[in-house]
Structure formats: C-alpha cells, structure tokens
Amino acid sequence: MLRKVWQPLTSWFEQNKREMEWRSNPLPYYVWVSEIMLQQTRVETVRPYFHRFINELPDIHALAVCGEERLLKLWEGLGYYNRVRNMQKAARIVMEEYGGELPSDPALLRKLPGIGSYTAGAIASIACHIPAPAVDGNVLRVLSRLTGSLACIDDAKVKVHFEELIQELLDEEDAPDPGIFNQALMELGALVCLPGGTARCAQCPLREWCAALRLGELDSIPVRKPKKPRRIEKRTILAVRDASCTVIRKRPDSGLLAGLWELPSLEGDLTDVEALEEARRIGIRPVRILPLPEAKHIFSHVEWHMKGYLVLAEELEGLAEGYLAIEPERTRREYSIPAAYARYTEYLNIRPGIQTEPGGEF
C-alpha cells in the first residue's frame, strides 16, 4: 500500500506544506525543540515560543546550563513542564556523552529522557535523513483510514505495526527521503485527514486508495478507547496585592505543576469570610476583598473549577514561610506562573505576554 501512495503523497506535500522555522532550517536541535513543544499543542501556538526559546537558548550547551527558573519561564504557557525538564536532562547527557551533538541513531535518541519512538524518528529522519519511522497521532489516523484498520490506535502494538510498515518502505532501494515522507504523512493528518466528520477528502491526494472512504467509515476510523472522565477539583484562588507588590508561592516539587510559582491557592469552594481567614493566616492584613469571576482549567486527567477573590492589603510584610511579595514587573520577568491562573493574574498586572491552553493535535 505505502509503495503505491508515497509519490502522490510527497508531491502533494511539496506543494502544500506549511512554512515552519524548524522545517526550513532542520537542525537536529531545532527539530527536537519543536517536536517537544508540538506535543499536544498546535503549530501556530508554538511559533512564538519556539522563537523565544531558540533566541535565548540557541544550542544544546545553552539548554544544559540554563538555570531552572529561567528555563521554566521560557516554557511558561506551554504546559506540561516536565517536558522541558526532561529536555534539559537530555541536553546534559548529550554534552557529557556525545560532545554536545545529538546522536542520529534512533536507538540512542530513545535512551535520552523525554524522547520516545516518535520524537527519535522525527529527529533522525528530518534532520539526519536516517530511514526511521515517525508515527504520531496524525500519522496513526492517516494510516488507519488508508488501510481500513479497525485496531485501536491506543494499543501500543498498533503503533509498532504501522512503524514496521513505514520502516519496510524506507528500507527499500528506491525509497523516498525519510524526512519528507514522514512530514508528508504528518501534514496530511494535520491539514486534510482531520478527526471525525471534518476530513477534507476532496483535497486528499490518497483518496483513491483510502479504505475508510470507500467503506464510508471515516467517522469510526481510527478506533479509540473511550476517554475516562476527568476528576473535578474545586479551588479558591487569592489574587493579593498592595500598592506595589503581589503574593506568590512555589508549588511542591512533585505532583501537578511541580516546582512552579502560583497565586495562593486553596482546595474547595471558600466563602469570602473563609478566604479572609486564609489571607490572615499567611500574614496578609486585608483592607478589602472582592469576588472575581469563576474560571475553569483543563489538565490531562484533572479539571479545576476555580473561584477567586481580589484581596487588597495595606502592606505585604511578615508573610508566612514560602510566600513572596514581588513587584508585578519582576514577577512577569522572572517567575513562571502557569496558564491555569491566567484569569486571575490579569487583576495583578502580571499576566505573561504569551499564553496558551495546551490541547489539540499538531
């Protein structure tokens, strides 16, 4: 099947591919950074983050030696902060074991923290022209529809099966350029072979070979496991400020949003009286409290339902251990506050310039 379609697919790609900074200059480091950023985030969202990150950390050495607070600040708004922590761990290994150059061997790439089979294949094929498959969610959807597969794509064995099909093609003597072929499959899934009833089959260069289209099964292919409902957590957020500062604290080193900075946050749906009691407990002397709009933030497995209060204080001195009173400009410049709090940081003039809600496919 893949032998029949690779030429029309790659021809379509050359005429329809989107311009991307990491695509026009596919250095291994650029491809790596972009692929990690693109996990569960869209291309248009990633562009400004990629520019900011590469401008400040232009190579693996810069990433390896970057301080954690600055590293998290550069990632602020993308979510899934362990991704960039793993990138730095990998960068340090690359500096120590590979002289600062990412290996081109997919097997060696997969040994680095945060690099799985897809990312390893993307780096090896796009940046180094190594014949390696790169199968992400878009590719799984395209290949499932093309072959009419009713196997569940959430099953790791199904991904391995499609990787083996691509590997067979790329190992042939007259095989396409692996980077072009892999990107073409990804791009087809991103622009044409869309989920559910949104597929643009009339624009698809592979429609005459597509089993799902022929069988009228576009809505049922690919097969996915039913998603488990997210756990709902109610939280109360305190947006605290005096004439010159606001209050933040660091989250625990493990768990959700580990090691990041946040506004004072409490479990449950607190009344204004209860919120005032909490403010006093952490050393704030409130002069006024105002209700703020409710907000919701969705993580992978948890959904926060938040209510907030703006707490106006006389002054912010003598705060409890772990709480800091910081000027808004310094907070915006130095401290990474997750997008989950964006609805409330705007009342403190510390909302970062780039914000996004993680989600969606590349």
Task: Provide key terms for this protein.
16 helices, Nucleoside Triphosphate Pyrophosphohydrolase, 43% helix, alpha+beta, 362 residues
Give the topology, please:
Blueprint: H1 2-16, H2 21-24, H3 28-37, H4 43-56, H5 60-65, H6 68-75, H7 82-97, H8 106-109, H9 117-128, H10 137-147, H11 156-170, H12 178-191, H13 211-215, E1 231-241, E2 246-250, E3 261-262, E4 265-267, H14 272-281, E5 286-298, E6 302-313, E7 323-326, H15 328-334, H16 342-345
Parallel strand pairs: 1-6
Antiparallel strand pairs: 1-4, 2-3, 2-7, 5-6
Helix pairs in contact: 1-12, 3-4, 3-9, 9-12, 10-12
The tally of strands reads 7
End-to-end Cα distance: 25 Å
Uncertain segments of ≥5 residues (pLDDT<50)?
A: 353-362
H/E element order: HHHHHHHHHHHHHEEEEHEEEHH
Overall mean pLDDT stands at 92
CATH class wording of the largest domain: Mainly Alpha
Largest sheet: 4 strands, mixed
Radius of gyration: 24 Å
Side-by-side strand order of the widest sheet: 4-1-6-5
Indicate the CATH topology of the largest domain. Endonuclease III, domain 1
> Structural class of the helices, strands and pairings?
alpha+beta
The helix tally amounts to 16
Q: Could you state the CATH homologous superfamily of the largest domain?
A: Hypothetical protein, domain 2
